[in-house]
Design goal:
The chain has helices at residues 14-17, 23-26, 42-52, 55-62, 64-78, 89-108, and strands spanning 2-3, 7-11, 35-39. The protein has a three-stranded antiparallel β-sheet, with no helix packed on it. The chain has a domain at 2-40. It is mainly alpha-helical. The radius of gyration is 25 Å and the shape is elongated.
């Protein structure tokens, strides 16, 4: 087995596969090997995909556009975050943090909308 930072590579053992009657279903490789690449977080991706289809989480995900996406839309439309006026990651990050802090302060000053 070969590990890299993000992918795990698994190879079958040729001596086990060489005489297998169903080898053709797995691999046509001349060395009688099958290689499978799998991302190290693939199990979590599969779990998230499974959860996404559950009724309870479908209802929560439907609310995302009303709660989360609205914040980004307001930032772009009302707070000039469609473009940045600063160069460099540090300056742009500071500006974004300041704008989101201002947006959060505005939320604390008004009653909750239902």
């Amino acid at each position: 087995m070969h590990d890299s930072t993000t992918n795990r590579e698994c190879k079958s053992r040729a001596y086990l596969c060489k005489g297998c009657p169903t080898r053709g279903m797995c691999t046509e490789n001349a060395k009688c090997e099958k290689t499978v690449l799998r991302h190290v977080w693939q199990n979590y991706v599969e779990m998230a995909e499974h959860v996404r289809h559950m009724v309870r989480y479908k209802e929560l995900y439907r609310l995302r556009k009303e709660k989360i996406e609205r914040v980004f839309a307001d930032a772009k439309a009302k707070h000039g975050m469609r473009y940045t006026q600063y160069r460099g990651l540090a300056q742009a990050t500071n500006r974004v943090n300041l704008k989101f802090a201002a947006m959060n302060l505005k939320k604390t000053g008004r009653p909750e909308m239902e």
